[in-house]
Amino acid sequence: MGAQKGGTTALHSYLMLHPQLNPPRKKELHIFDIDRNFNSWPNQLKVAFRVPKQPILKKQHESISFESTPSYIASTLACERMSTFLSPWTVYVLILRDPVKRLWSEYNMKARRIQNQDTTLQSLFDHADDLAVCWTPTENDDDAVDGAKSKDSSGDSVPPAEKMRREHCQEALDKHLDGSRVKASQVSRRMVNLKFAMDFKRKCVDTAKLGASIEESRECARKLGVLRETLPDIRQDIIQETKSLQPCVDMAAGKQFSEAKVPVSALPWTAREQECQGKLKTRICPQCVREADSEGCVAKCFSASNGTAQELAIQMGCTPPDVGPYPSHKLRSPSACSGDLCTCYPKAVNMADISKNFLWRGLYYPQVQQCLRYIPRSQLLIVDNDDLRRDPASVLGKITNELGLRDAPYGGPGFTYADASNEFSRKYPEFASTTGWSEDGSSSVPMPEDIELMLRSFYATPNKMLFDLIGKKFDHWL
Ligand SMILES: Nc1ncnc2c1ncn2[C@@H]1O[C@H](COP(=O)(O)OS(=O)(=O)O)[C@@H](OP(=O)(O)O)[C@H]1O
């Protein structure tokens, strides 16, 4: 269910290799976050996702369907819908990534898309003569465009001459666009490029050649809505979004930390860590308070206490995640999101232009908080991108174990990520060009220091709030 740029594709690729896991026909079905898709349920789900009609005990499953849509976690609707419609045995996996790295990865994906568009447009210019067949005016331009819109562009309603012209145009596009596509879209590359060529011809090309200059054509294409995305001014976007989000973050954090000061048990772990340690030491291991080697002493004393230390820690609300079960996060009422960081959501989210959501996407605290209103923490497996990269066998083992599946084929000799990614490219050959995705997208472009500083400072507090909420800490994010 996310996060976007969190490593969902790598995870999806690994899961595909498990013999008991059925991958969907495409990655990112967007069933639960896009109204149009959701409203077409149950047909789409039945066909594409094959959710069991009856809840079945997970251990009895011969095989299980899965899907990965990275935007679910950032949607305010997806978790509620999933909890209502999916089997209660569903395991939800959230792969998180240091939000600073996540943002940089998203920005670079966007940059690749823009670059792809420009390369495509340039190719159209460079090969204008060969592509003239696409621009030649015909009597039935409107039919051609309408025909190109439908999935079957060779439909019977298209006259034979037009059909042939379009085939020649398609051939020329295939030859010269060389795998690039004019825009990121779920529709096949051939269709997108053909439709673009048809629309472009109709609206931007007056003569048998392309528009007078590439700038003019780019402008026209932009008006057509084909070159919709522009490269964001990332510094400005971050500054603007920070202005809008920071007050909510401060308010939520101030509220959380000040409320928490009263009884120790109400304090979030990050804030009460020192206080808790002091109290536990005094109550359970008074001898350690007097000893110089207090760290080693406390550890020994705790393990010798036969669980008493742990029990007491839980009672005091002082349980760090690695000591024992973390007290589950209790939401006060169904509207608990208001008053917390969730009040930031309307300020942050501008669905019409995703570039305005760079910061929000990595603001995991309100997203997870919102989701936990519907999905129990025990059903939500949270993993870190770095762990998947470093030790995939362990991460995947946890997931498959949670699902009650047979041993995962991920730890065997000679197993590499390439096995998984090759399988992914075989099943989803268009994914990278459709989305601008790349296996190592942002690593070749170092993040400017000033951007990193702005981001680290913005995310420091919400990250701590998240750690507290989920009972897990990713130290390297701070
Ligand atoms: N094996 C493995 N483990 C963990 N992470 C990996 C792995 N392989 C690739 N990647 C990195 O994942 C980043 C893309 O994330 P997503 O696949 O979630 O992107 S998307 O939301 O589907 O567009 C993308 O990040 P950037 O390279 O920083 O852009 C990939 O490098």
Automatic annotation (TrEMBL):
This is Heparan sulfate glucosamine 3-O-sulfotransferase 1. The lineage of its organism: Eukaryota, Sar, Stramenopiles, Bigyra, Labyrinthulomycetes. It comes from the Eukaryota. 3'-phosphoadenylyl sulfate binds at R97, S105. The keyword Ribosomal protein does not apply. GO terms for molecular function: sulfotransferase activity. The active site is at K5 (for sulfotransferase activity). The keyword Disulfide bond does not apply. Gene3D superfamilies: P-loop containing nucleotide triphosphate hydrolases. It comes from Hondaea fermentalgiana. Residues 142-163 are annotated as: Disordered. Keywords: Transferase.
